[in-house]
Amino acid sequence: MNPTSVLAEVIVDQLILDGVKEVVIAPGSRNAPITMAFFRAYQAGRVKFHTRIDERSAAFLALGISKATKSPAVVICTSGSAAANFHPAILEAHHSAIKLIAITADRPARLRRTGANQTTNQVGIFGAAVNVSLDIFAPTKPEVGQIAKWRGEISAALNESGPIHLNLQFEEPLIGELEWIEPLSVGIPEVTEKMEPLPRPIGSYETHGVILVGHDRAEISMAEIELLAEKLGWPILSEDPLSSSKVIPHASLLVGNSERRQLLKPKIAMVIGRLTLSRSLNSYLELADFKIIVDSRIGEIDTARSGDEIHLALPEVDQQKIDSEWIKLFNESSVEIHSKISNYLKSWSEPTVVNEFVSQLPKNSTLFVASSRPIRDIESFATPRADLETFANRGLAGIDGNISTVIGIALNRRKTFAVIGDLAFLHDINGLLLGPEEVQPDLIILVISNDGGGIFSTLPQNGVVGFERIFGTPHGRSIAKVAESYGIPAIEVRTLEALGAQIARDTKGIRVIVALMPDRESNAKLLKQISTNLD
Ligand SMILES: Cc1ncc(C[n+]2csc(CCOP(=O)(O)OP(=O)(O)O)c2C)c(N)n1
Fold first, then answer.
1. What CATH number did the domain enclosing 500 receive?
2. Would you say the CB of residue 397 lies under 6 angstroms from ligand 1?
3. What's the pLDDT tens digit per position in 160-172?
4. What backbone phi and psi angles, to 5 degrees, belong to 352?
5. pLDDT recorded at residue 442
6. Same domain? 374 vs 470
7. How far apart are the first and last CA of the chain?
8. From atom 13 of ligand 1, which residue's Cα is the shortest distance away?
């Protein structure tokens, strides 16, 4: 009889019963009971199993899986500093309200603060980023009722939203028999479903309103948003123009100067999700006399967020007067913007490359967009299309974990594409570290390679003394060679024709296209030139 093995076996069984379908493990000894229990479940066909050496990548991989499958993935590591490597992905999951289960193995509590090897205080290590943090141990003497107690704790924890943390104290021996004084299947408790906030019906609003949609839309479907916009007779200005053909193209440029902002001044604005990409949309929002915020995260995460009206779910509208001239005004202005910018989008540059890439993706494919310039270039320049499924880590807009997140997504989709800057690519290069038995998804990663952080050249600090070492941070590496050193095929492109040919190649597994860009400074100048031309 081995309490440690039994604890691990019961937790794995209960997690699977409560909806876990995939697990990512990072190697270690203290976590042996739970990684071995999960491997047995994998062999029995109950769960998908992934292994990653780097815990930070492992956690972002699990995040990507949770995002794509909408069921919580588990990530497991050993004790000590390994646990801290989960923190970035947990923070991203927290701020995007994604369920993720982090399991950290620990030594028994009596060994804390004794100088025992690889032992730190892991209890509560993720602070307020997790809604539940359990510290579970196996009693040395078996007790009747223990199994039901563990199962109840796990089920209750999984009923919470956002990421959760299970710290499991494993006593040695870490490997042993699974006999117990009662069957391990006993006592699965009834779980009471958490009530979802009900949409609050509203009467009618002013005719001159707008819907402003943040990139992650607070997980609300675009179809629902389109329906509401139609009922209200309001235009949709979206940070992500690639998941609806009903959005006004080039929204951030449309409201990029104060004159046009005044022309399109709304009486009322409804914000769905968070606006995190451009200053222009936020300045535009400020012009509205009345602001409605729709985001379930206001309930638990962004509790200090304010607005004239707050909704945790999309409101329903009864009747509404519509002024058809209002939307026309937006469409006409947008057509004007389109003709002004199209001249700039013909030759090789960052906005052109990103724009060509997203317009050439096959129908119904999945796209992950990294933070920094690519997501902003798409917001400003892309022509709307409705047949892509888009993802981004906009919870905290980190340049960490992007490769791992998209691999987690791609493992659950047929064909996935990603566009990412070279720093974000290098930051999570270990995301490409896949062992020989790991499943490689069909994924094409386009790296916009400008040898450093291009975004900083577009900000007011451009040109300050020490700019390159403080902000630009060039690395001088060949992205293609780095990818190849991880066993991932990579090719460099310098023309739109070559880029198009690479996108069209139907290949299996992961491959990288490196778009070699001119210097960051000339890109900043081009962006400036485009916006000046729109004034
Ligand atoms: C984890 C993390 N560290 C630092 C930052 C700050 N940061 C924002 S953008 C950026 C540079 C990104 O460079 P790259 O990925 O090459 O994209 P580009 O700016 O060239 O589009 C940095 C360092 C961040 N967002 N996340």
1. 3.40.50.970
2. yes
3. 999 999 999 998 8
4. -65, -45
5. 98
6. yes
7. 76
8. 453
Nearest residue (by CA) to ligand 1, atom 17, is 421
Angle between helices 402-410 and 55-69 (to 10 degrees): 40
Is the pLDDT reported for residue 234 higher than 90?
Answer: yes
Question: Is 190's pLDDT higher than 80?
Answer: no
- Provide the 3-class DSSP secondary structure of residue 130: coil
Indicate if ligand 1 lies below 6 Å from the C-beta of 373.
yes
Point out the domain boundary residue: 169, 193, 221.
169
Q: What is the pTM of this model?
A: 0.95
Q: Which DSSP state fits 470?
A: I
Q: Is the pLDDT of residue 372 over 90?
A: no
Q: pLDDT over 70 for what percent of the chain?
A: 97
Residue bearing tokens 């009206």: 309
- Please tell me the distance from the alpha carbon of residue 402 to that of residue 60, in angstroms, as a whole number: 8
Is residue 197's pLDDT more than 60? Answer: no
Q: Are 309 and 387 in the same domain?
A: no
- Looking at mean pLDDT, say which of 106-110, 113-117, 306-310, 389-393 comes out highest: 389-393
Q: How far is the CA of 470 from the centre of ligand 1 (A)?
A: 12
Identify the domain boundary among 337, 358, 374: 337
Contact of 4 with 173, CB cutoff 8 Å:
yes
Q: Output the residue whose Cα is nearest ligand 1's atom 8.
A: 372
- 358: containing domain: 346-534
Predicted confidence band at 143 (pLDDT cuts at 50, 70, 90)? confident
**Token pair for residue 298?**
């206001």
Same domain as 400, residue 333: no
- Indicate whether residue 400 lines ligand 1 (CB < 6 A): yes
CB of 55 within 8 A of CB of 28?
no
Q: Which of 95, 372, 516 to mutate to test the pocket of ligand 1 (most atoms within 8 A of CB)?
A: 372
> Hey, what are 484's tokens?
């190849």
Whether the link from the prior residue into 3 is cis, omega within 30° of 0, is: no
Residue nearest to atom 23 of ligand 1 (CA): 453
- With a cut of 60, say whether residue 189 has pLDDT above it: no
Looking at residue 72, what is its pLDDT? 97
Give mean pLDDT, residues 337-349.
95
| 33 — pLDDT class (breaks 50, 70, 90) | very high
Atom of ligand 1 nearest to the CA of 350: 21
d(CA 500, CA 394) in angstroms, rounded, equals 28
For the Cβ of 353 lying below 6 angstroms from any atom of ligand 1, the answer is no
The CATH number for 215's domain is: 3.40.50.1220
Q: How many domains does the chain have?
A: 3
Instruction: Give nearest CA residue, ligand 1 atom 20.
Output: 454
Question: CB of 454 closer than 6 A to ligand 1?
Answer: yes
Determine the residue of 423, 451, 471 to mutate for testing ligand 1's pocket, defined as the one with the most ligand atoms within 8 A of the Cβ atom. Answer: 423
Query: What's the chain's average pLDDT?
Result: 94
